[in-house]
Amino acid sequence: MPVMGKVQVQPTVAAIATLSILLSISSIQSLTGIGVNYGTIANNLPPPQTVAQFLSQSTTITHVKLFDSDPAILHAFAHSPIAVTVSVPNHLIPILTNLTSAHNWVRQSLLPHALTTNIVRVLLGNEVLSTSNKSLISSLVPSMQNLHIALSASSLAHRVQVSTPHSLGILSASDPPSTGRFREGYDEAVLKPLLSFLRATGAPFMVNAYPFFGFTEDTLDFALFRPNFGARDRFTGLAYANMLDAQLDAVYSALGGLGFGDVEIVIAETGWPSVGEPWQVGVDVDNAAEYNRNLIQHVTSGVGTPLMPNRTFETYVFALFNEDLKPGPVSERNFGLFRADLTPAYDVGLLRTSQSMMPRMSVPLNPMEEMQWCVARADVGLDALQANIDYVCGLSLNCLPIQAGGECFFPNDVRAHAGSRWMQVFVKVGLEVSEMIN
């Protein structure tokens, strides 16, 4: 970690000053914890502001993936510790092959929220390679490259990644996992350039992995992480105790087959419905609860998979709510973890208990490290000072303690909040920072 000296910056460039602190400490970091997909195809959902407050204060959910860039939702997550991923709908992908259009999209969709909302990733479409739409597929990588250029021009590329989610349908082989390969035609023409882009920018390969869509009555226990006879890869001899590990390792093998085994894998979607058609096997509240509870324990355990041991996976559960207006089978409308009144549809351990209500911080403090405190300069205006607090809280720090109801809220004064110990998370031994950067 480089040593940072004192910095004198004018209040009019508060955002740049704060960014200099964050950039000196780290570049884009992998997210930890559990995320959720926040879909809104429903007519009974609570207001976005209520959702953002609920997730921040009442759950251990640390990141949210949106299927668009709804400004009302992005505004609702302002000053929240939640890391937000936004999406570009499939139909806009060809438009973004024009660089000016990419600049305009960033300017209109991201910049109004960049100082206050912790936007960490932009996803181009959803399962584009599985659409068989030649225009979308050929436009995907150029649009991703243009968005990255536009983000760089807006000084956002250091904190906002660009990627795209894939279905498992892009695999031509997956059983056993070591034989995982991408579909011929897509591998060289699309996936190699795409993976080269992800590697160059440090972005992950994102996959929608659903054991729910791959199980049979005989493999239900295997899909739900229950005790079972498992499966053994006849080529590697590795044993698999659950279907998700087999799916992820098939993707890992496919990446390795193209020479990109070092690109991180993120689970963009996975889940289990609680209601389905009367004839569907394995679809009920108990199985949904069991899958998601076991999923969360597994991907955060550090066990990893047989081919990717000793690691955790950034994972987005599908979904935050049931969506009663979605088309298709009954199960499509019943993947929600929470009801519209924010009570849990079933318990998977994501609600914060009274013993775990202490605020979370994205950067853990070592109690053995000496902390150096910041004091706001007397000549700094309150608006500029509040802007810095908002920016830091939106990017990297859980600032619930200095919000209403928090233990450091009183005195309810901007200068008092700026001097709160909760604002000192980045100030460690070796950092000679004695002023509130503004």
Number of strands: 13
Structural class: alpha/beta
Counting H and I runs of at least 4 residues, what is the number of helices? 11
Low-confidence stretches: 1-27, 354-374, 424-438
Query: Could you tell me the strand content as a percent range?
Result: 5-15%
Series of H and E elements: HEHEHEHEHEEEEHEHEEHEHEHH
Shape: globular
Q: Please give the radius of gyration in angstroms.
A: 22 Å
Distance between the termini: 22 Å
- Measured as a percent range, the helix fraction is 25-40%
Strand order of the largest sheet: 5-4-3-2-1-13-12-9-6
Largest sheet: 9 strands, parallel
Mean pLDDT: 83
Give a brief description.
The chain is an alpha/beta fold. It has helices spanning 14-25, 48-58, 71-76, 99-110, 134-153, 186-201, 220-223, 243-257, 285-299, 382-395, 414-418, and strands spanning 34-38, 63-66, 83-88, 119-124, 161-163, 165-167, 171-173, 181-182, 205-208, 231-232, 239-240, 265-270, 315-317. A 9-stranded parallel β-sheet has the order 5-4-3-2-1-13-12-9-6. A two-stranded antiparallel ribbon has the order 7-8.
Please characterize this protein's 3D structure:
The chain is built from 11 helices and 13 strands. With 438 residues, it is α/β, with parallel strands linked by helices. Helix 4 packs across helix 5 and helix 5 packs parallel to helix 6. The N terminus and C terminus are likely disordered.
